[in-house]
Amino acid sequence: MTPALAVRAEGLTKRFGALTAVDAISIQVSEGEVYGVLGPNGAGKTTFLRMLFGLIRPDAGSLEVFGRTWERDGTAALEGVAGFIESPRFYPYLTGRRNLELLAGLDGGTGARTIAEVLDVVDLTGRGGDKVAGYSFGMRQRLGVAASLLREPRLLVLDEPANGLDPAGIRDMRALVKRLTSSGLTVLLSSHDMDEVEEICDNVTIMKRGSVAFHGTITELRHQAPPQAHLLSTSDDAAALALGQGREGLGVTSADGRLAVRGSQPVIDAYVAAVVGAGVAVRSLTLGEAPLEALFFMLTESAPADADQLTRTDLEETSR
Ligand SMILES: Nc1ncnc2c1ncn2[C@@H]1O[C@H](COP(=O)(O)OP(=O)(O)OP(=O)(O)O)[C@@H](O)[C@H]1O
């Protein structure tokens, strides 16, 4: 059976004056999955999430959350949805627990999930009695997740939850999201970090200047990534570049004062041996950017004209 949809956006568009921040995007989030909306700064991720929360109205297209829409259902469209845009806000002079009590009070008291329970889920049990002013940024983010969980959501929406966190904070936040989804919660998160999306998401939409540059599963994304590049520096790069042309299974290009070499390991080994054999000294051979990171830049940084031409087929060619 096909899982029910938590979010269905069709042709969703938002303009700010002359700028089209979100340009006819279509996104479907199934119940129970972790869905990533990935893109560089200004791609339109937050604008999409703000439309989801009803904070701004779309100019065109439709948006359903668990089959409900803002037009038809008003605030009831947000039933079962919780989360935060940018960073959650708390009273710094009150404890984490007191902040949660106040929020629960606004919602008419806690439901089945008590404050102690949600503090436990986000690993803040030992710190719930401390003032938020003394919390690290990561702890505040986790308290934000706890506040969202009090509403017992079916869909948790997180806007760049790991943004600004140190490596330990990032690790804790990713572990938290994984724990939450193992209990069946649907999570929709925005991110500009390919690693994060690869580690925790099932499906991803990559946005570029308001449009969808890629949509698919993480496995599909991996298949489209170019092979790992090696960066080669030699005593005579022009000669090394010439030696790389026409070798089967090998791609050598000049990039930022070094050579980017792509191919399988045996093919690269044979090429490097040929370079040395031709009397060119190898000064360094290091790993270039990770394949998925390279794909992310290809998808989101190409000039508009190139982007239109960068089809799935082109990507497949590159990844061969
Ligand atoms: N209220 C607004 N008025 C005018 N322009 C806006 C407004 N909100 C967003 N924009 C513009 O819309 C575009 C998309 O912004 P958005 O915040 O959605 O991007 P983002 O992908 O979330 O980026 P970031 O990672 O920097 O938050 C940007 O060019 C931004 O300047």
From TrEMBL:
Any one Gene Ontology molecular-function term assigned to this protein's record: ATP binding
Domain ABC transporter, chain residue ranges per copy: 7-234
Keywords associated with the record: ATP-binding, Nucleotide-binding, Transport
Domain of life: Bacteria
PROSITE patterns reported for this sequence: ABC_TRANSPORTER_1, ABC_TRANSPORTER_2
SMART domains tied to this protein: AAA
InterPro entries: AAA+_ATPase, ABC_transporter-like_ATP-bd, ABC_transporter-like_CS, P-loop_NTPase
Pfam families in UniProt: ABC_tran
Entry similarity comment: Belongs to the ABC transporter superfamily.
Name used for this protein in its record: ABC transporter ATP-binding protein
Organism listed in the record: Microlunatus spumicola
Lineage per the UniProt record: Bacteria, Bacillati, Actinomycetota, Actinomycetes, Propionibacteriales
